[in-house]
Amino acid sequence: MSRSVSTTEADRVDVLIIGAGPSGAVVAQHMAQHGFSVTCLEQSRWFNPTEFPGDKPEWELLSQQKWHHEPNIRALATDYPTNVSESDVHPVMLGGVGGSTLLYGGHWMRLLPSDFRTYTLDGVAEDWPISYGELAPYYDRIDRAVGVAGVEGDPMYPPMEVPMPPHPIGAVGRIAARGMNKLGWHWWPAPNAIASQRIGERARCVRWGTCETGCPEGAKASFDITHWPTAIKHGAKLVTGARVHKILVDDRGRADGALYFDADGTEHRQRARFVVLAANGIGTPRLLHLSAHPGAPDGLANSSGLVGKRLMLHPNAEVTGVYDEPLESWLGPAGQSIHSLEFYETDLSRGFAGGAKWQVMPTGGPLRALSLYDRDDFDTQWGPAVHRRIDETLGRSLQWGINSQDMPEESNTVDLDPELTDSNGIPAPRIRYRLSDNTRKLLAFNIERATEAHRAAGAVATMATDLWPDQPGHLLGTAAMGDDPARSVVDRWNITHDVPNLAIVDGSVMTTSGAVNPTATITALALRAAEHLAETAKNVEVAQ
Fold first, then answer.
1. Dmax (CA) of the chain
2. Rounded distance, CA 141 to CA 157, Å?
3. In sequence order, which residues have a C-beta less than 8 Å from that of residue 260 and are 6 or more positions away?
4. Across the chain, how many H-helices and E-strands are there?
5. Cα–Cα distance between 227 and 27 in angstroms, integer?
6. Cα–Cα distance between 455 and 204 in angstroms, integer?
7. Residue 414 β-bridge partners
């Protein structure tokens, strides 16, 4: 591995962003549009929608290896491995321009106002230093930028304008809603960051139903499409194949840039006035630990000792119902058809704190249909039994997914593995994450209620997954936001308490997790942070 360093004073830029995922894209676009010189370092590459497997006959097979969402299974050189031997849930992610939005389902939901005040309302976790009202204008702007499709007026959801008409909820949504209506439980057509009509360069969704292996149509709001073209048009420089392994500091302890390896293994130095971390809730604490120096021996920006702690992963469960009627349940978007917030808020009479958001999702193709009964010891012999089982299940099932609220517990951590490394020899992250008794009770309660919902809707059989070990890819809380430097890593503007020209804008800053998909919140926070940085940058004393 080469250690030659290429560095010149001309390389110094106003803003250096590490990570080209959704939050990095938002910051790059805003700063470039406001006249700042911007460089972004991304460890992976651009992906073309034609590469994605969803429009190919063998897409289910491809999704199990080459396009799997867990990096330890995908095992690309541009990924980094994670040690999950001490984790109940395996973090999932994808490096690349657009980051994990390339493989997300496009579920686009805001935290509820109560999520910012869990300590005050429920006596658990901590309150955020900001309120829902402070973030709401940025949610509005991000919603418009990604082209959210949905229906306004959800009685259990904050008021919002939806810029695009909804997707059809399909037979799966109608049947699921039938059961919810019988029980008197909340449901609503779900908001998705998927184009229901053509918008700019994005195509209209044609309902492939393969959103979580990449959108072959280019309709889903992945941030390589929604933000990076504009950022680059305004002068942002995006360097791919650039794996950062250290944030540099000057003699005052201020961020001064970063060291990275290019695709050939040559080391480079990129200097900057401001450094912005957008490397996700696993990659960011990893890099802060890698950037320890004599003035910060426990890791950069870690005087609180909380870098890498309070990891939240939104443990997911699901209940699939099989129905004696055709549902066309291979159709997208996937995406969510309808959602329910019936059991979202804390009710301590249930025996646990927190709640869950449910979503109806399609159940895929024949391999998924065949696997439904594997959990009941179905004899997977080839021949007529396979055909009979697929006839019973293919297109005749729907899934209630359960996204649980995760509490910030300091025992759930990300640190550096003493042995495992990535392809450049850089220490890989070690994940230590265990489900709490509270989370187990929460999941069990919601599984029972989702099973009840299926039965009310007329399901002839139900199958539950108590815990998805490799879902959903929500990597949160490992550099949390707060007003007290002793109890948090960044302030209310996403600036680290210890290093005044170092910002963090990914999911690691979330004080609590809520129970909704977090990308809307992450990107709204990133936009708010970028606006603050642009407004104050000229008055901040930084290393020259």
1. 74
2. 18
3. 41, 242, 243, 244, 245, 267, 268, 270
4. 13, 17
5. 9
6. 34
7. 431
Q: How far apart are the first and last CA of the chain?
A: 31
SS (H, E, C) 242-278: CEEEEEEECCCCCEEEEEEECCCCCEEEEEEEEEEEC
Distance, CA of 219 to CA of 197 (rounded, Å): 9
pLDDT at site 8: 39
β-strand pairing of 316-322 with 397-404: antiparallel
- Please give the DSSP secondary-structure letter assigned to residue 279: S
For residue 183, count CB atoms less than 10 angstroms from its CB and return exposed for 0-12, middle for 13-18, buried for 19 or more: middle
- Tell me how far apart the alpha carbons of residues 453 and 463 are, in angstroms, rounded to a whole number: 13
* Distance, CA of 159 to CA of 136 (rounded, Å): 10
Quote the tokens at residue 428.
Answer: 């890989």
Q: For 88-130, write each residue's pLDDT tens digit.
A: 999 999 999 999 999 999 999 999 999 999 999 999 999 999 9
Question: Based on C-alpha coordinates, what's the Rg of the chain?
Answer: 23
- The per-residue pLDDT for range 219-248, each reduced to its tens digit, is 999 999 999 999 999 999 999 999 999 999
Which residues, in sequence order, are bridge partners of residue 220?
A: 194
Cβ atoms of 310 and 478 closer than 8 Å: yes
